[in-house]
Amino acid sequence: MSQTTMTPVAAEVERALAGLDVEAVKKTYWDQNEFFHLERWVPGSVVERMVAEVERVRPAVHRNYIPRHKKGGSVSYYTLVEQAPTILAFYRSPTFIRFLTHVTGQPLQPCPDSDPHSCALYFYTEPGDHIGFHFDTSYYKGSRYTVLIGLIERSSSRLVCQLYKDDSSGRPVEERRLATHPGTLVAFNGDKLWHAITPLGEHEERVSLTLEYVTDPSMNPLKRLFSNLKDSFAYFGVKTVFIGPGRAARR
Fold first, then answer.
1. Where are the alpha helices (DSSP H) in the chain?
2. Please, are residues 215 and 143 in contact by the beta-carbon 8 Å criterion?
3. What is the dihedral of CA 96, 157, 236, 45, to 10 degrees?
């Protein structure tokens, strides 16, 4: 990725962070069992460029349907590497990663280039598109943290977050129903937040970006195989998952 692409994004992220009370965000994150959200926080100029990249990769959307669990479309990291420089610059921004590391208290880093899920777009474009309740379970040896950024929100669909589910402290579950307006950022420990996307209505559209960070990028080979099979059938398609890494390596 060229420096001319990365520098403006990094500078805008740094300016946005300069206006943020990071210690208050950190306190909220821990008070809410490793979860926080910032309404319309990502700079508008960055969101505008990301949305342009959404349109550029729209022909690559892979749709899938798993009864009683999920329905929608996805574009993998491999496509974004080739066609979405703004999204990749944000994902890899050292300033943003340092911010997340400070808030979480964990040494976070981007996922390996072999992970199609590491940085991906999710398209909800047909009535009934949704995803059921789940944790973002980590198959890595370390923990995995999720950042979700709203890019297109023309829907009644909501991100439903249930805090403290299965929490050993015994705190009662608290539910948040969030509209992911453009620039809204949600971050959480994937093993802690029980969350879902409610079904899309008629003539609606929702597109979000998900960024994944890990504390340890190594993974047991059997877990890697299981993760790839899951991503093949539930998200990106067999061809993308099993051919994509080679294409990415040749870039």
1. 3-18, 22-31, 44-57, 77-83, 85-92, 94-104, 221-231, 238-249
2. yes
3. -40
pLDDT tens column, 14-33: 999 999 999 999 999 999 99
Q: What are the start-end ranges of the H helices in 134-175?
A: none
Q: Provide the 8-state DSSP code for 234.
A: I
Helix H or strand E segment including 135: none
For the segment 176-200, what is each residue's pLDDT rounded down to a tens digit?
Answer: 999 999 999 999 999 999 999 999 9
Distance, in Å, from the CA atom of 209 to the CA atom of 173, rounded to the nearest integer, reads 26
Residue 150: CA count within 13 A, CB half-sphere:
24
pLDDT range class, residue 73, cuts 50, 70, 90: very high
Q: What is the pLDDT of residues 90-117, one digit of tens each?
A: 999 999 999 999 999 999 999 999 899 9
Structure tokens at 52: 């342009």
What's the DSSP call for residue 19?
Answer: T
Q: How far apart are CA 76 and CA 243, in angstroms?
A: 12
Dist. CA 92–CA 114, nearest whole Å: 15
User: What pTM, to 2 d.p., does this model score?
Assistant: 0.90
For residue 95, give the amino acid letter: T
* Residue closest to 84 by CA, chosen among 53, 40, 117: 53
Single out the residue of 235, 234, 180, 178 nearest to residue 206, CA to CA: 180
C-beta separation of 188 from 162 below 8 A:
no
Q: State the Cα–Cα distance between residues 183 and 196, nearest whole angstrom.
A: 19
